[in-house]
Each structure stands twice: as structure tokens, then as C-alpha cells.
Amino acid sequence: MGANIYPQDVAHGLYEGNPMAGLVEGFCLALDAGGDLEARPVVHVQLRKGTALSAVESDRLAKACQYGVLRHLAATSRDFVQSVAEDPSAGEIAIRLHAYGSGPFDGNSAIENGYLIRGGGEAEA
């Protein structure tokens, strides 16, 4: 819906007030094209080295991260708030957890500045 999502805002959302933030090593942003041909933002979260989570813990961490990012964006980005008002699906920001050094963090991926997967630019909602 045209609202830019910046890495600094995502970082605030992931870490501020998140009781599980100590499990997060880092993150990067990407866009995933859905079946409806709409691109949706995805926050890939890398867990700290040696962290192993149960399915329940993974779900809890993903939900805490998602809630924090949405809360921060709603509080700081008028563009994001307007996008969600126009289309509630613009607030669908996926969180994908990855073990340390896996997924987009595997060392072979092209992550620019530690935040963005090459080719994605800023994520848009």
C-alpha cells in the first residue's frame, strides 16, 4: 500500500519491550509475493547461536516480534497507519525465525547493510 518500512523501525519493534529479545541475533527484511500478486513484508529473524526453541517458544517469539513491530509502526508511521486504514491486510507483516547461520543468514545470501535482502529495497506495506 506504499508505506515504507525502515530497518530502524523494525529494530525498535523487535527489541523494545520484548521479553524474548535476548534470543534475537539480528534480522533482515524482504518482500514476498503472495498469490494475490501483492508483495508483503517479511521480517527474517536470526536466533542467537546455540538457541534451540520448542514449537511453542518459536510461536511465542514470532508473535512477540510481530506485535512489537506492528505496535512501533502504528505509533511512529502515519503512512503505515493510513495504509492499514485503507486495507487492513497491509498490516500483515510475517515473521520468520531462522537458526543461527541458516536461511537468509547462511553466509551465501546477499544481505546489504545487515538489514535488506538484495533486490528488495525498503519493504512496503
Which structural traits does this protein have?
7 strands
The low-confidence parts are 118-122
Number of strands: 7
**Residue-averaged pLDDT:** 85
Structural class: alpha+beta
Q: Which H/E pattern describes the elements? A: EHEEHHEEEE
Q: What's the end-to-end separation, in Å?
A: 5 Å
Helix content: 25-40%
Main β-sheet description: 3 strands, mixed
- The share of residues in extended strands comes to 25-35%
* Arrangement of strands in the largest sheet: 2-3-4
What would the principal axes of the Cα set say about the shape? globular
The tally of helices reads 3
- Which value, in Å, is the CA radius of gyration? 14 Å
Question: How do the strands and helices of this protein lay out in sequence?
Answer:
Layout: E1 4-5, H1 7-15, E2 24-33, E3 39-47, H2 55-76, H3 78-86, E4 94-98, E5 111-112, E6 116-117, E7 123-124
Parallel strand pairs: 3-4
Antiparallel strand pairs: 1-7, 2-3, 5-6
Structural write-up:
The protein has 125 residues and is an alpha+beta fold. The chain contains 3 helices and 7 strands; from the N terminus they run E-H-E-E-H-H-E-E-E-E. The strands form 3 sheets. It has a 3-stranded mixed sheet with strand order 2-3-4. It has a two-stranded antiparallel sheet with strand order 1-7. A two-stranded antiparallel sheet has the order 5-6. Helix 1 (7-15) packs across helix 2. The longest helix has 22 residues, at 55-76. The model is unreliable at 118-122 (pLDDT under 50).
Summed up:
With 125 residues, this protein is α+β, with helices and mostly antiparallel strands. The protein has helices at residues 7-15, 55-76, 78-86, and strands spanning 4-5, 24-33, 39-47, 94-98, 111-112, 116-117, 123-124. Helix 1 (7-15) packs across helix 2 (55-76).
